[in-house]
Amino acid sequence: MNRFDAMLLPDRGQAAHRIDVVTPDAYDAWLAARPAQTRALLAAQRFAGKAGTHAIVPGEGEDWHVVAVVADPESTWALAALPAVLPAGTYRADVGGPSALGWLLGQYRFDRYRRAENDEPRVLLTPDAAAIAETLRLAAATAQIRDLVNTPTNDMGPAELEAATEALAARHGATVTVRRGDELEQGYPMIHAVGRAAARDRAPRLIELNWGDPRHPRVAIVGKGVCFDTGGLDIKPSSGMRLMKKDMGGAAHALALAELVMAAKLPLRLHLLIPAVENAISGDAFRPGDVLRTRKGLTVENTNTDAEGRLILGDALTRAGEEHPELILDFATLTGAARVALGPDLPPLFTDDEALSAELLAAGTAVDDPLWRLPLWDGYDEMLKSDVADLVNAPDGGFAGSITAALFLRRFVPKDVAWAHLDVFAWRPSAKPGRPKGGDAFALRAAYQVLKRRYPA
């Protein structure tokens, strides 16, 4: 049940259960102002007003209402736990867009493969009517990422990413161009090399969507679409392969961000690029030690077939640069090293553009979608040296793995174009309020905030 439009409505005085949102340090004052019956009931429940707790209390002019104690009422996730524990019905809270978004995402379900819960929605009435449309779009975009990443590979291959892009284009009047299979060998040789071992119906492809007025500034969004990653001939152990359905999480983020841009009708010329492959194993698989040609003309010594995401992104970034955009954003579930450095919840940001870095970091803080900048340190660029080609795709030793991956990508971006690389995990290993275990969005709202500010509608 991910139709959010009926779950968030403007407050026009409809009948509803009130939610009093209070902080722990304000709880005693709130309690003192309640009737004796309410104080006695809460005391009997041993309700202490700790952050993250709630209670249902007798009504004051209605049958009952809710007290919710939250650490930060402005947090996206302040009310996110409530829809799962409150009875179905309509509620009223004096909160704005961020908390309303958490309320919606607390009702996200992925039930494609099991019987859907027959659960009535928890409806929130908000006084911030002007923010409803945008909040609904953000919830839908987040749910789209979750759905795409949660879908197993047997139902989410390159063809399904193409279909998702076609559906997106149809909703917004965009155009789509797709190059598939052996058609890629000449123009996009790294995408072809990585994906050629897959079955014919899962052939590699480069999916491009174009939208907007050609007179507007061009912005490219690139998403890594490895629909499953065996590791190739440098095969992953079974434990490392278990979650590789999520390796197209970058493509999911790119699709969701493109949806937000087009739905908001931002005045920009959008170029969405998704290199979509399955890194499979067969007699035709690319090999360790192969020297790959690239769209840019560089040669790459393939030192690790499990470092394939940066290869397909290299060709896609080259293609993006050919259209002379003023900004390129790429999303990719690129490195385990990023998780070792920053964990699953905090995506590293890589960029040489100081203004863009400041915008993204500030936006992440403002919309509760944090990022952390890691360096594109030139001193590690020498790790990419090859004895037989222009560069390697994965240096030996494993040091600074997230940084060297970003440095590899930088080789394929025009020097005069602002570019940011976001190494997202796209997966939540344990549940939090409003954020169930499974596929999830990271840095999506931060990136969208930057685009809204740069290109106001």
UniProtKB/TrEMBL annotation:
CDD domains: Peptidase_M17 (cd00433). It comes from Sphingomonas aurea. The keyword Hydrolase applies. Pfam families: Peptidase_M17, Peptidase_M17_N_1. This is Leucyl aminopeptidase family protein. Belongs to the peptidase M17 family. It comes from the Bacteria. Residues 304-311 form the Cytosol aminopeptidase domain. GO terms for molecular function: aminopeptidase activity. InterPro entries: Leucine_aapep/pepB, Macro_dom-like, Peptidase_M17_C, Peptidase_M17_N_1. Keywords: Aminopeptidase, Hydrolase, Manganese, Protease.
